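As a warm-up, study this chain.
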Amino acid sequence: MFLNAKLIASTFVMIFLAELGDKTQISTFALASNSRSMLSVFLGASGALVLTTLIAVVLGGVIGRFVPEKLIKIASAAVFIGFGVLTLVEAFRK
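Now compare it with the structure written out below.
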């Protein structure tokens, strides 16, 4: 196990850009705006992101040993499309 600076940088950029303006960031913004302790909101949000990232890395490492990468990408795309369709349906119902 070694650190790969290029992989660290590309992962950082990809996750940073993906998280900009998403529901998590908006929720954190709302919590911070209603709180007197921004440090508490920061620590809570950071802890949650670290934990969900740890779960994703562990599951990805385990599942990646048994499931081909192409199938994982197809399943991921299907999940994202499904959430997109649900979001559109919900938006049109209102």
